[in-house]
């Protein structure tokens, strides 16, 4: 009996989410009928619910309930108005705050820069796959930054990008004037995103390399025999074959950018200069910890949650669609 | 689809029912009888050891049956953690605060201490920073001030007299030109966090605003359109335009990159602190006590008298939810007792709130500072709310980069200041 049961579940996982659900539900139906006919062991009917209860309880008590409390809290006031309902007051204040607008605009900027953040590991992985000279060396070196904590990465780049730092010294030696990399509001956000990409692309690279491992080498050989150039090979063979990997990297990189840039921001710019590098996360931390506005911070958190929800739903849509294509 | 709609409806109704004002306002104490919990960010440091011993000894004389537990929190998370504690109405009985906005924003959760600390009012200085609506909420431990330190070695190199620094702004500007020719910057400035402008405002406030304007500012009647207030921001911009500041001020952290620039002799002046960091003890270590000077603010508006801007630096407050406020207040008093503060001054390198402590062993700079305490006044920026300070930090960065005018700056600050 155990052997008979495990096999379909393994197969369903391989078949992807949509297929998997269908397999399990049909299995459930088939399994339920003989049991009911066999005398209705009530305990056994409730068994599945009891077995999933701990997991459900943990999610409900530690995740969903606090989430609802947070949303509820965002409709109350701060300071003297602590505990009194203020309706959408906090949300109105948020959208009127130029700093929060900057934070949302920066989220937009991150979305725009996403293709770059995906293309870099994608290209480098392609080169490694195509065995450029020294590809073994690069494969390990590229992953190094991914094991450093954002605080350390931030501190390193703070020194490199300082006004009197080495990067400006190098620029000075070729006659280019110093640039205030982290002090110029038009540049700072790009620098922080650049450093974030540098620090995290190793992970995406590994995912790409795993994707390449499943690539059918015969396709590449066939393309070469047909006389395809490198560009044509990348465009017509590699990208279509890796479409699911690319989608996966897109989604994980987006989530990484939205949720784990706080450490870098805190160390490199503290949201400045002139508030130009604020992201919702940093705004929430600032309002809660520094400005003593926990309810306003909850409202900002709720908005960030909504953004993440949209990204998450898009992710599910994308994965479902690619599952159907298969 | 129908099921999904039903679940959303359940969710919305649930939220609406719960939304009729939840949040917190319970007033329970976490401490059991006979135990007080203290939160701070100092007690974990090695220098605090003898201070804590003195505090505990003093407190034992009053309440031998009450146990005291110190919980050291990381400073960068301190107010976040404290905010959570206040929100839940449970937390430490006694807690450490920075003076000014940090404590004033949170007085809802604190017990007024006026009745308990009456005896200490003469001995200790710096009460103003822990006072809101003429009620005292914490007993001061250290004083925090914003003196202008200068490097006498650079003065000599620039052929200036280290014994008599400039007393007027015009002379000071001329001195800075001489210092620039000697290859050093006039000010070591770090404004990455937007804190540089706060020190600027307070260090130069007493010689820019008239005495009446100064007192009105501290009392909360701030005229942002006054020419003297605008002058402070104009000078800030000018100092940036004339390259008097160290390079890349907007990307230099004040703590502690800008102080490092001063210590390493790359800049002649720094607007520093009196306690904790960026102060006489740190600078003595690198520059030696003979080379470190403290100067009065150069006079900017004729007829003004320079005074040292200072406030209570850190102080211990008592939480509203503590069981017996009298016992907790006694602990706060022990934390500011004479012996304890003497140990704090000697080991931590701070100007303690007890002005009777002899500091002659700490070098001429510290002695000058303590001698100026009597005529000192509360610092201008400490009177502002954290929201206005945050805005001022961003606007000051814009002034340095030239993307805003002084008129626009004072307009925005006035609006934020009025909003509270």
Automatic annotation (TrEMBL), chain A:
Transmembrane regions listed in the UniProt entry: 46-65, 107-130, 142-163, 187-215, 248-268, 295-314
Biased composition (Polar residues): 1-12
GO term, biological process aspect, one: transmembrane transport
Protein name: Sugar ABC transporter permease
Residue ranges of domain ABC transmembrane type-1 in the record: 99-315
Compositionally biased spans, kind Basic residues: 27-36
PROSITE patterns in the cross-refs: ABC_TM1
Composition skew (Low complexity), residue ranges: 13-22
Main location as per UniProt: membrane
Subcellular location: Cell membrane
Disordered: annotated span: 1-37
Membrane topology: Multi-pass membrane protein
UniProt-listed CDD domains: TM_PBP2
InterPro entries from the UniProt entry: MetI-like, MetI-like_sf, UgpAE/MalFG_permease
Annotated family: Belongs to the binding-protein-dependent transport system permease family.
Source organism: Micromonospora arborensis
Keyword entries, A-Z: Cell membrane, Membrane, Transmembrane, Transmembrane helix, Transport
GO cellular component entries: plasma membrane
Automatic annotation (TrEMBL), chain B:
Keyword Signal: yes
Signal sequence, renumbered to the chain: 1-23
Domain of life: Bacteria
Gene3D superfamilies found in the cross-reference section: Periplasmic binding protein-like II
InterPro entries the record matches: Bact_solute-bd_prot1 (IPR050490), SBP (IPR006059)
Alphabetized UniProt keyword annotations: Signal
Name of this chain's protein: Sugar ABC transporter substrate-binding protein
Species annotation: Micromonospora arborensis
Lineage: Bacteria, Bacillati, Actinomycetota, Actinomycetes, Micromonosporales
